[in-house]
Amino acid sequence: MAFITIEVVDAQGRVVPDAQEPLVVKVTGGATLLAVGNANVRDNDPYYDSKHHTWQGRAMAVIRSNGKRGKAVITVNGSRLTMNLK
Fold first, then answer.
1. What is the C-alpha to C-alpha distance for residues 39 and 80, in angstroms, rounded to an integer?
2. What residue ranges define each of the domains in the chain, with the CATH number in brackets?
3. Among candidates 33, 36, 37, which has minimal Cα distance to 64?
4. pLDDT 10s digit of each residue in the chain, 86 long?
5. Alpha-carbon distance 3 to 43, whole Å?
6. I need a surface site. Which of 8, 47, 59, 63 has the fewest CB within 10 A?
């Protein structure tokens, strides 16, 4: 299993602590998405769904190998966000 940290950052690379952005996580290739969460105990988004909101600028995706050969491709989309992988 792998735990993928998702962060909303500003132009200087700092986490935006009040960001509550809707996200859609998609995993293809050699892995499967197991869960998406954000540590907010009052959040009602289901963890087994690919859609979730960030909380305090962060979220986390949990993936695992699906037994297929090849790389896993993880895509995170937000309506007002651009993706920058590290």
1. 22
2. 2-78 (2.60.40.10)
3. 33
4. 999 999 999 889 899 999 999 999 999 999 999 999 999 999 888 899 999 999 999 999 999 998 888 888 999 988 776 666 55
5. 19
6. 47
